[in-house]
Design goal:
7-stranded mixed sheet, 4-stranded antiparallel sheet, 1 helix, 11 strands, globular
Length: 124
Amino acid sequence: QVELVESGGGTVQAGGSLRLSCEPPRNTYDTHYMGWFRQSPGKDREGVAGIETDGDTDYADSVKGRFTISGDDTRGIIYLEMNSLKPEDTAMYYCTAVPPPYHTVWTLGRFGVWGQGTQVTVSS
């Protein structure tokens, strides 16, 4: 059982920033497509950002230019830097690990495993 430990959620005003962190098992970090998806009540899961083992990144159109996903190869931690947050970004955010051969934002939340989630709330 792969355990993904997330942290960093909270409440922020519109226009503010938050950084989420996720620490997967080391072998998972080294071999899986890592990313974040989000889900709010009554809405479908939405892949937000993904990062491949070689560092290539991909984003949902809704967050491009505002969110940045990165990986610390030394510590094996995935980060999601979220800037210019909007009320519509309010959701539970989940860290996820997707096994090969999947490696697109669309696969986040549909394949692989994910953590317990961390709540992000953006007030207007």
